[in-house]
Structure formats: structure tokens, C-alpha cells
């Protein structure tokens, strides 16, 4: 149990951080997945990306993402590339659930306890001293989109140095927890970029303040697309469809209202009320007082 709001957030962050066992499990299939892909495809590079490797993953929700740079000529449709990857993995893991879930091929080991998302990519000449890849879009009709995972990890790490080291990643983990616990159909990558961008402009950071500010900004801007802060790719979008955007906008508005009520109570030295609204905000998962 936590006595203060800040202690509640610190306890919550401990619960959200993947365990050592989960991190260890993440390495158990690294070599076999790589070997399975190399047996069928020309793999130029193979590296982990996404929340798990960024240090912003949420326990029980964040998969292990890996981007593979394929040397074969890029096919016209991204579905073809996803099929290449799926077939290569099915050959090596015939009794494992493997399915296409854009922009990746998802491999569920141990019934989903250890889940990998393998994203096919093709190196382009779009970046200036930057590695930019064509990867499948999030929807069936989006074709190829730009991705620069190394640049975006660098951006998050840069923003994570101030106001205090770790603030950007902590905020990202908290906002992603809201997404997962409240089933909000918004891109985790988008949220991570928004959180890093927010923290980079702050001279101070307090969990309850900054969670509220980010959610209110997402609400007031209606989850607007953002420019790539590293200038490596095109616009970064929050949702992959109009239907998902409608659902996400409703939920972000509710979240912003609850976060504001929690902050108001915190400012009035009323922790009991603040804890009540924070628990509502995070789908009943916030630590009790």
C-alpha cells in the first residue's frame, strides 16, 4: 500500500516493469528465430526494437519486437513480405501459433507467455545518414510505410535524460498502461513519441502532473498526427482506422477528465480522492492507499 500519490506511482511503475524471468524468456528463442528466417530469406540485419528493448514495456502486454532487413527485392505488396516471414517461421516452429498481425508476424511461444513480433523491412535511400526502412503499414490497405527504429530509440534516450534521468520512459510506461488496461486502440509507438516529446520540454517532472498534461494534450489535439521528431520518416499517426480513432478519442477524453480530477485532489492535499480517480484512470489497477 502507498501513503502518498507519488509513492502510489512508484509502486505502480514497479508492477508495470517486466520481471527478470520475462526478460530472460525473451532471449530463449532469439537465435532459433534468426536461424529460421536465414534458412529461407536473405537477412541483412536483425535487431530488436519496440517497447521491450526501449525500456518502456508493460508487464504482461509488451511483446518482443524484432525488425529484419531483408536483402531480397522488395515485393509490390507488403502482404507478400509478411507471408515470406510467416512461412519461414512455420517451417521451424510447426506446433507454435504464428499469425500475421500488421505490421508484423506474431509468434506465440508457450501459449503466448513469450510473444515475438517479427517485422519485415527493406532498407531505403530515404534517410540522410539515417537508416530508414519500408515496413508493412498497420492496415490491410496501407501498403508500405517508413520506419527508422534506431533514430526513434535515440530520440527517446535523449529525452530520457531530463528533467531527471528516467522521466520520459516512466511517463511512457504509465501512458501505455492506461492504453492496455483500458483497451484503447491507439499506437504504442505514437504514445511513446508523444511522451518523450512532452518530457523534453519540461523543467520539472511529477507523475500526477505530467500524466494529466499528456492526456489533456492528446484530448485537446484529438490525437493529431505528429511530425517525426528526428525527421527520418513521415507523419506518425495515432490510429490505424477511423473506427479505432473514434473509440480512442472517447476514451482519451474520459482519461483526461479523470486525470484532471486526480491532479486537483492532489493539489488540495486530498490523496484519498486522488487515489480513487487514478484507480479509475488505470482501469482498477492503480495501487491502493
Compact description:
By secondary structure, the protein is an alpha+beta fold. The chain is 49% helix and 15% strand.
Kindly give the count of domains. 1
Specify the structural class. Answer: alpha+beta
Using only CA atoms, what is the Rg? Answer: 20 Å
Overall pLDDT level: 92
Number of helices: 11
Number of strands: 7
Report the end-to-end length measured between terminal Cα atoms.
5 Å
Q: Give the uncertain stretches in residue-range form.
A: none
Q: What overall form do the CA principal axes indicate?
A: globular
Specify the helix fraction band: 40-55%
Strand percentage lies at: 5-15%
Write the element-wise H/E pattern from the N-terminal end onward: HHHEHEHEEEEEHHHHHH
Report on the biggest sheet: 7 strands, mixed
Mind explaining what this structure looks like?
The structure is a single chain. The chain has 289 residues and is α+β, with helices and mostly antiparallel strands. It has one domain. The protein is 49% helix and 15% strand. The chain has eleven helices and seven strands. Strands 1, 2, 3, 4, 5, 6 and 7 form a seven-stranded mixed sheet that branches. It starts with a helix and ends in an 8-residue tail after the last helix. The model has no long low-confidence stretch (mean pLDDT 92).
Amino acid at each position: 500500500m502507498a501513503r502518498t500519490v507519488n509513492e502510489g506511482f512508484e509502486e505502480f511503475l514497479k508492477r508495470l516493469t517486466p520481471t527478470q524471468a520475462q526478460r530472460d524468456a525473451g532471449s530463449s528463442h532469439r537465435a532459433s528465430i534468426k536461424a529460421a528466417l536465414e534458412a529461407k530469406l536473405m537477412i541483412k540485419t536483425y535487431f530488436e526494437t519496440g517497447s521491450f528493448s526501449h525500456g518502456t514495456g508493460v508487464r504482461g502486454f509488451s511483446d518482443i519486437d524484432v525488425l529484419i532487413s531483408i536483402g531480397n527485392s522488395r515485393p509490390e505488396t507488403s502482404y507478400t513480405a509478411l507471408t515470406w516471414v510467416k512461412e519461414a517461421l512455420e517451417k521451424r516452429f510447426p506446433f507454435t501459433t504464428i499469425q500475421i498481425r500488421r505490421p508484423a508476424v506474431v509468434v506465440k511461444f508457450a501459449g503466448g507467455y513469450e510473444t515475438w513480433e517479427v517485422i519485415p523491412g527493406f532498407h531505403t535511400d530515404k534517410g540522410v545518414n539515417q537508416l530508414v526502412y519500408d515496413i508493412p503499414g498497420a492496415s490491410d490497405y496501407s501498403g508500405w510505410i517508413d520506419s527508422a527504429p534506431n533514430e526513434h530509440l535515440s530520440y527517446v534516450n535523449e529525452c530520457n535524460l531530463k528533467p531527471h534521468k528516467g522521466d520520459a520512459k516512466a511517463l511512457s510506461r504509465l501512458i501505455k498502461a492506461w492504453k492496455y488496461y483500458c483497451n484503447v486502440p491507439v499506437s504504442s509507438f505514437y504514445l511513446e513519441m508523444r511522451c518523450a516529446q512532452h518530457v523534453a520540454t519540461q523543467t520539472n517532472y511529477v507523475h500526477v502532473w505530467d500524466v494529466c498534461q499528456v492526456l489533456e494534450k492528446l484530448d485537446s489535439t484529438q490525437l493529431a498526427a505528429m511530425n517525426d521528431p528526428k525527421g527520418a520518416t513521415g507523419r506518425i499517426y495515432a490510429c490505424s482506422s477511423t473506427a479505432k480513432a473514434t473509440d480512442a478519442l472517447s476514451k482519451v477524453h474520459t482519461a483526461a477528465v479523470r486525470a484532471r480530477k486526480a491532479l486537483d485532489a492532489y493539489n488540495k492535499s486530498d490523496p484519498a480522492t486522488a487515489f480513487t480517480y487514478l484507480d479509475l484512470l488505470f482501469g482498477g489497477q492503480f495501487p491502493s492507499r
